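Same chain as my last thread, 463 residues:
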Amino acid sequence: MRQQQPLDLAGKFQGLNISKLRVLDVGCGTYNSPLSSQMKSLPFAKLYSVDGAAPEIKRLEAIKPGEFAAAYHWLGVRYAQNLETYHEHEVDVVMFLDVIEHLPKEVAIQVIKEAMEAAEKRVLIWLPLNKAPQGALGGNELQVHLSEWTPADLEALGFEVHVYEAFHRHFDPPVDAAWAIYDRKKAEKEVEKKVERILIDRLDVHGDVLVATSVLPGLQEKYPDAVIDWHVRSGYDFALKNNPRIREIIPGPVGNLEALHRKYDLVITPEHHMNWHAPMAVVHCECAKVKFHAPELWLTEAELNIADHLKNRILVATHAGWYSRQCFNLTPVLTTLRQTHPDLLQVDLGVGIPNVEYFKGTLRQVAALMKYARLYIGIDTVFMHMAVALGIPMALVLGPTGPETQYIPKAVFIRPFVNLNPAEPREEFRNGIQLTEEEILSTIRQVLLPDGTVIAPEIEYNY
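reply #2:
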């Protein structure tokens, strides 16, 4: 959506009584930009200015009531690390003027969500779109751009987005800018509208598409009369086929995404990097505002009609597209394990494991095997998510995306000790997952006994 006068700040409060507003300005800076300087002339009832207590903005502490607003409060905190700031004060509007691009995306999304919960009337975001690289201006590390944003990112969070093409001409090439506006009253009215057509827009990555199916049961419960379609990149729909909750699988990416979205009453774009401290399936359901259910994978009777010698096997996989998720010591462990467990069956597309039988088939054919399997042993790949959806016990070797970001209710797992945010570059995993054969085997033995008995421990989650 496009409109005129992008720097008209007062216009963003249209429909609200400015003199009665309590405003929280996050990342306020020094109020010297063409946009932020307009704050001085807006007669808010209360204004809370939030920023890091850098020396150059210490003067904000000395601002007197009436200079900016009837009541002015300076809060010298790092907003990204102090989310309680949004709830400590009753506020009508929360503002982010050239702020969220300075945060890692998963942090920014959480910050925005907190603001949406706290703001009684509106959340306003002004930001550059897409690639807008910026370093530490004047040596200030807070000026570095750490995330890129598209209108779809913000629309998925519930914002109305107004785009201004090539607004930032100091970039080469010029960069678009946007206002993203969340209006609580309007959003609540939208919720009240009857939802008859739902689109889930999750394009690719086999495992992530499968995890995103966690929203389907809850959507059907919440909107029992609605039809659900799914927009997915061609070739990534194996987890969606034959699902009775889905009316149509729309192969993509389509040429005109906005036109596609306009056909639906509700569009959900499940993102997999929104919260690194909760299972992704749970985060997806929170995004869709539905009750949590596990991911699901529907198989037909014909697909489940497999040979008896392929049933009740232990399925193993060692190959991952992400090098950081490879564990090279897993292969010799499985080679050794084959001596006491001849029913191991390799199902991934990696290098064959010595002395282990290899099954070459489609993902749905592997899913049929897994439906009858006793156990899955492997790494964080689509096969792990298939085991989750089908309720199969697992013994897992995990790397950068650890158990805190997965929904794995029937599993034992091992992971090298790390002390970093999973969203950051992982130096520990640049050469794959470093675990000894003894560590891996002892973990597998927690769920697979020498006599072939499988123990399926239950992991409890507090949602």
